[in-house]
Amino acid sequence: MSPLVFIQRLLRLVAAIIFLLNTGCSVQNQKPHQANSQTSQLQPAPDVHQQCYEYLYGVGDIKPNVIMAYDWCSKGASAGVADSQVLLAEMYLTESFLKYDLNLALKWYLAAAQQHHKHAQYMLYHLYITQGGRIESKYEPNFWLYQSVSQGYKPAIDALADIAIENNKN
């Protein structure tokens, strides 16, 4: 990494921290949703998600097959596998897989986010902001962004830094 890139990243992180401190945001002990106890306790065989992924993207000898991917992703998502929930949500956002359905995408991202899936948390923020998804409170998008940032998810950190930089301009 070049010194310039390092300094840019450091400045983005500092801007994000300053923004968090100025807004008085705390991500600890905040629970806008209660995780479904059935969802978090079920743990199917790890290959359910593997099959979901392989049929969705085509891995090795397996060719992409939307019907099989949907079947495996649905099984994994219904059983509480966060990675399968995310892939199913992404299928609903990509019309080449399924009919676009923002509400179903949000449903599955939320299920994964409640299990601390950092990409799902970031996607909830992103979809609430860009697509106008159903929001329970005006603070919910930021909650999910901060949750993802607290796990060190780079796209979330970058988004928070962008917000901080934009706010400092005003």
Gyration radius from CA atoms, angstroms: 18 Å
CATH homologous superfamily identity? Tetratricopeptide repeat domain
Q: In percent terms, what proportion of residues is strand?
A: under 5%
End-to-end C-alpha gap: 31 Å
CATH architecture: Alpha Horseshoe
Rounded average pLDDT: 79
CATH classification class: Mainly Alpha
The CATH topology turns out to be Serine Threonine Protein Phosphatase 5, Tetratricopeptide repeat
Domain count: 1
Helix content: 55-70%
Uncertain regions spanning at least 5 consecutive residues: 26-43
Tell me about the largest β-sheet.
none
Kindly name the structural category.
Answer: mainly alpha
Shape: globular
In total, the number of strands is 0
Question: What is the N-to-C order of secondary-structure elements (H for helix, E for strand)?
Answer: HHHHHHHHH
Question: How many separate helices?
Answer: 9
Features:
mainly alpha, Serine Threonine Protein Phosphatase 5, Tetratricopeptide repeat, globular
